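Field reference: sequence -> structure
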Amino acid sequence: MNIVQTVAPISVIIPCYRCASTIGRAVDSVFSQSITPAEVVVIEDCSGDETLAALQELERIYQGRITIVQMKANCGVASARNAGWAIATQPYIAFLDADDSWHPEKLRIQYEYMSNNPDVVLCGHKCAWVIDETTPTVLSKDRAVTRISAHSLLFKNAFSTPTVMMKRNIPFRFADGQRYVEDAFLWQQIALFGLAVARIESDLAYIHKAPYGSAGLSARLWKMERAELGNFVSHYRAGRIGSGLLLVVAVFSCAKHVRRILMRPGGR
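Structure field:
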């Protein structure tokens, strides 16, 4: 099935917190797509700086094609995404973070794949870390796709959030109030429920900061580790995994945590 259309039934959800200097790049990458999403929802999570003004300016530039949701209190990225999800109207949703960007063919490639594979409820893809503002424009013609198993997601998060497109009506959401590893927890829930998950092996999104740099949430490695272990315990208590698997993934996670500490500048 070859999809040819101008507007795709996709809601793009972008949580925003103190991102006045980067949100323009993110939104521009959405409206530079070869197929246009039907709606773009940005959630202003009580930044207390110039972020709201930047969003309002983008709303003016794009002539009302952006919906701005203002949170009443700072609740974190999980709750912000859920707030956008709650008002999304399209059958597919795609997530983008305010400091990241997309390749112009991202939505077309991903939407075409999901339309051709209706059993897949969550589709991600690879992403590239971009040091400067130069992003690749050439994609490999061989776009291999990997079906991702539920157990593999317990050992490694296969998806950065800005790579994910999913069906809007799935029976799961991000854990409200969870500020660390909230994305991996949702992907795991979906896969452990038995729903099909896949990854397109092409770099269709760009991260403009180091994954484990000295700034942002990724710098708080211990809080991330504690949240990951908490995710495993939640799966165990919900009956999604057994005690043996819980022990294995917990030990593996702790080993990864030590490695990340040693890899940081000044970590050893």
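Note: The helical segments are 23-31, 51-61, 77-87, 106-116, 150-155, 182-192, 221-237, 243-263.
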